[in-house]
Amino acid sequence: MSERVPSDHDAVDTHRVPIEAVGRTGRPRVVLPDDLGLGDGDVVSLVLDGDSHEARVETSLDGDPTITHAADNRRLARERDGENRLAEWVADADVSVGGSAHLDVVTEAHQYGLRTPGRRVVYTATAAPDSSLSDIASDLDG
């Protein structure tokens, strides 16, 4: 069952996160706080100013957990394929490379929201999928 939760609710933990450029490409990446407990290869739901996507956590050369690509579904996120919704969001939102955004923890280790600072978003909080079902889906995708 899902529940509607605003970004300014006491149950939502908010972090200010930097938006950096990846090397010479200039593609944006979001550096995640270490205390989230997310590791390389984890796939999470990522809501960008209200629009739901999926993102794979990667480790930067500095050892920081980052997100560089958000996709329309979990398979595309795992494969880093499809349109990069994170890059589109940075281009269209009132954020920029070299600036920052707010990262909301909606459902720990499963659902996060990335939003423009000062903007209020209402999330549809969802429970994390059963790990055995996720494992089966990963096996089927290869």
Question: Any chance you could write out the topology, listing elements then pairs?
Answer:
Layout: E1 3-6, E2 13-22, E3 27-31, E4 43-48, E5 51-56, E6 58-59, E7 65-67, E8 70-71, H1 74-79, H2 85-92, E9 100-107, E10 111-115, E11 122-125, H3 131-141
Parallel strand pairs: 4-10
Antiparallel strand pairs: 1-11, 2-3, 2-9, 3-7, 4-5, 5-8, 6-7, 9-10
Structural notes for this entry:
With 142 residues, the protein is α+β, with helices and mostly antiparallel strands. It has a single domain (3-137), classed as At1g16640 B3 domain (Beta Barrel), CATH 2.40.330. The protein has 3 helices and 11 strands. The strands form 2 sheets. It has a 9-stranded mixed beta sheet with strand order 6-7-3-2-9-10-4-5-8. Strands 1-11 form a two-stranded antiparallel sheet. A hairpin with a 3-residue loop joins strand 9 (100-107) and strand 10. It is globular, with a radius of gyration of 14 Å. The N and C termini lie far apart (29 Å).
Considering the chains and any ligands shown, give keywords for the structure.
142 residues; alpha+beta; At1g16640 B3 domain; 9-stranded mixed β-sheet; two-stranded antiparallel sheet; 3 helices
Strand element count? 11
Q: Sketch the topology as an H/E string, one letter per element.
A: EEEEEEEEHHEEEH
Separation of the first and last Cα atoms:
29 Å
As a whole number of angstroms, the C-alpha radius of gyration is 14 Å
Uncertain residue segments: none
The total count of helices amounts to 3
Beta strand %: 35-45%
